[in-house]
Amino acid sequence: MRIQMLSQSILTGIRVLRTEARRNIAIVAPALNKASDPIQQLFLDKVREYKQKSAGGKMVDPNPEIEKELKNELERVAKQYGSDGKTDMLKFPEFKFPDVKIDPISQSAN
User: Fold this and answer.
1) Which residues, including other chains, have CB under 8 Å from residue 90's CB and lie 6 or more apart?
2) Could you write out the DSSP letters of every residue in 34-92?
3) For residue range 38-47, what is the model confidence (pLDDT) as tens digits?
4) For 32-35, which contacts have Cβ atoms below 8 Å and span 24 or more sequence positions?
5) What angle do CA 30, 34, 38 make, to 5 degrees?
6) Rounded to whole angstroms, how far apart are CA atoms 109 and 107?
7) Nearest to 40 by CA among 53, 31, 27
């Protein structure tokens, strides 16, 4: 009886591993260099092209109208939140919480 339970447990484990392996291969397949599907290959080529164009964190193919709109929006946000003009509004703010000195409360025994 114990051997039968152990063998069932092993078979269940093998089935789970096989399913997980299939899922992992399906997830990793698009990242392979050669895709079996032409549409998948086209997608990979476009992703690689976009990666090259977006190097340095800049916008991809910006036109003057979009750059002007971005500048106007950043100026509006800076004015709305009281920026001094030197603060980078695209950077996450840094918070500093200094330790406050607290006076201890002493209780006298009555």
Assistant:
1) 74
2) S-SSHHHHHHHHHHHHHHHHTTTSPPSS--HHHHHHHHHHHHHHHHHTT--SSS-TTSP
3) 898 899 899 9
4) none
5) 80
6) 6
7) 31
Tally of domains within the chain: 1
Q: What is the pLDDT of residues 43-71, one digit of tens each?
A: 989 999 888 888 777 788 889 999 899 88
- pTM of the entire predicted model: 0.38
C-alpha distances out from residue 8 to 13, 19, 22, 66, 99, Å = 9, 17, 21, 63, 60
pLDDT of residue 68: 93
Range(s) of the domain holding residue 47 = 1-81
Q: Is residue 50 part of a domain?
A: yes
56 is a domain residue: yes
- Residue 52, token pair as written in the block: 């090259």
Q: Which of 93, 86, 68 is nearest to 78 (CA)?
A: 86
